[in-house]
Design a protein that fits this description.
Blueprint: H1 2-17, E1 25-26, E2 31-32, E3 37-38, E4 41-42, H2 46-58, H3 69-82, H4 99-109, E5 113-115, H5 125-140, E6 146-148, H6 158-170, H7 179-196, H8 200-205
Helix pairs in contact: 3-4
């Protein structure tokens, strides 16, 4: 089907293809106001965009990427998803293609916190749930911008996928948070709501 579409485009729009401009959008090249609100806008200067990404990458010695155009496109897609409330994605590619590095770079550009899990031979469902609980507490009670990266090698139990499915679809995991933790969360949300001038329910809905 894609080949047929390509042939039709070449047949009827061949005289216009050369003038088609690639479109890039992001929210990390310009901020506005005292609260430094990030503006999600069209990037007309591609070289400036690459320069901003390169400067951020130089600050992190562990990230080594060649910023060719496809890498920039994938990076902007990841950044867009990380800035959507409850956003999630599957990043697909062959081993060593830079998936983790792009996620790490997107974390820096989005001013988020990158979280990974350390899977060992003794890693259990209980430990995985503790990791998820810690992530939820950081995101909800500490209002931190979290990017949780889970690779295929980190998934060693089917129950992990079940928990992730619940978290993505429902925003919670059955049996993860006990009564004692709920009381602590209510207390934390009360303190956080006063700090941001809102209500605990509004924070919860975010």
């Amino acid at each position: 089907m894609s080949i047929q579409i390509e042939n039709l485009v070449k047949q009827y729009l061949s005289d216009k293809i050369d003038n088609v401009q690639e479109i890039f959008f992001c929210n990390f090249t310009r901020v506005q106001g005292q609260d430094e609100k990030r503006l999600y806008e069209f990037q007309s200067d591609y070289q400036r965009l690459v320069g901003v990404v390169s400067d951020v990458m130089k600050e992190e010695s562990e990230i080594q990427l060649v910023l060719f155009k496809d890498a920039i496109k994938h990076l902007l897609r990841i950044c867009r998803i990380t800035n959507i409330s409850k956003g999630h994605m599957v990043v697909v590619g062959v081993g060593g293609s830079g998936k983790r590095s792009l996620c790490a770079l997107a974390t820096l550009l989005s001013k988020a916190v990158l979280i990974k899990i350390q899977v060992t031979n003794r890693y259990s469902q209980k430990e995985f749930r503790l990791n998820l609980f810690d992530i939820i507490m950081k995101a909800g009670c500490e209002k931190k911008h979290i990017l949780f990266v889970l690779s295929d090698k980190d998934i060693i139990m089917e129950s992990q996928l079940e928990d992730l499915n619940q978290l993505i679809n429902n925003g919670e995991i059955n049996g993860l948070i006990g009564r004692d933790e709920i009381d602590k969360i209510n207390l934390s949300l009360g303190e956080l709501s006063r700090k941001f001038g809102t209500t605990p329910m509004e924070l919860f809905q975010e």
